[in-house]
Amino acid sequence: MGRLLDVKGLETRFFTQDGVVRAVNGISYHLDEGETLAIVGESGCGKSVGVMSLIRLIPQPPGKITGGEVWFGASDDRKNLLKLSDEEIRQVRGNRIAMIFQDPMTSLNPVLTIGFQISEALMLHMGMDKAAARKRSAELLETVGIPRAADRLDDYPHQFSGGMRQRVMIAMGLSCNPQLLIADEPTTALDVTIQAQITDLVKRLRDEIGMAIIWITHDLGVVAGLADRMIVMYAGFIVEEAHVKELYGNPRHPYTLGLLGSLPRLDETRARRLTSIEGLPPDLIDLPKGCPFYARCAYRIDRCAGENPQLEPVAPGHKIACWVDVSKTQPAAMGDGKR
Q: 70: closest CA among 182, 229, 172, 186?
C-alpha cells in the first residue's frame, strides 16, 4: 500500500473576542491507501477541527489554518491541499475526499429530495446527465441498505429515520468513489443497535471499494473492530499513536489509560469499577506551559509542569507524548500534589 495522506505540523486557530483559541497544535500523522485510522478523544480536543482543516472547511473568520502542510494523493500526483485555490479544493471535496457528519439532519437540505441531493454531486463531479445520475442514486441507496430505493428518491429527509438518514449520507459520500472517506462521529446520534449496523456497513463498503477511512469518535468501543491504527488527541495535541491491538493491549499515555479505564468491558468481573478522569480539559485560549494533561494526571512529575513532551516512538509503530513510563510507574492518588 502506498501513502495517501501526510499531515505535517497542522495548526488551526480561532480568533475570538475572548482571545485566540488554539484548537489544533502542530499535529502530524499519515494514512496509507485502504487503511482505516481512528482519531479518538473527548469533546473539544480538536478531532473534528483537525480533519475539517484538511479539506479547508474551517469557517474563516474566525478560524484560520496558521501552519502546516497536508499532502494528499498518490506519489505521482501529490498536492498540498492547503495551497490549492478555492476552485481546486472544491474539486477534491466530495470527489476524491468525502465527509460524513455527525448529525445527518443538519447536513441534508430539508426542502430538497434525497434523490436530488445525491444526483447533484454525480452531475457536478462525474459529469452525468439527470437520468444517469438518478439511476446511480438508486443504486447507491440500495448499496447502503435502504429498501425500495428507487421509490424513495423523491422523499424528503424528514421522511427517513435517523439511521436511514445516516445511510443516505454514506451513499452521498460514496457517490464519486472517493479515495478517502472522513467520518466525523457518524454514529453518535444513533442508538446502539443502529450504531453497530452503520459500523458494519462502512466496514463492508471499505472492503468492497478499497477506500481509506478516517473515523473520528469519542467512543473507543466503536472503533476496536474497525480501525487499523488509532490516534489519541488531547487539547489539540496528539498524545498517543499506535496500532489498535497495541493501543488496547499496551496503552502508554496516562490519558489513554483513563479513556480505556472508563470503558465497560465484557471480559472483566463485575467487581471492577469503571474509573473516571478527574478535573476538566484546559482552556484552549490559555493553554498551560507544560503538558496539557498535567492538572488531571496521576503520573505527573515536576518536569511535566514546565515542558510539553514531543510525540516520540516507544515501540515499533507506537508513539507517545509523555515524560513518564506508565508501565513502570504507580499512579499517585489525585490531590496529593506533585509526585
A: 182
Contact 145, 106 (CB under 8 A): no
User: Which one, of 88, 7, 18, 33, lies nearest residue 311 by Cα?
Assistant: 7
pLDDT tens digits for range 270-308: 656 767 788 888 999 999 889 999 999 988 999 999 899
Look up residue 139 and give its three cell numbers. Answer: 443504486
The amino acid occupying position 249 is: G
Nearest-angstrom CA–CA distance, 269 and 296? 27
Q: For 182-202, what is each residue's pLDDT tens digit?
A: 998 887 777 888 888 888 888
CA nearest neighbour of 237 among 310, 303, 289, 286: 310
pTM of the full structure: 0.89
Contact partners, residue 261, CB within 8 Å, separation at least 6: 274, 275
Distance CA 21, CA 25 (A): 10
Q: For residue 212, give the nearest of 18, 38, 46, 330 by alpha carbon.
A: 38
Q: What are phi and psi of 244, to 5 degrees?
A: -55, -50
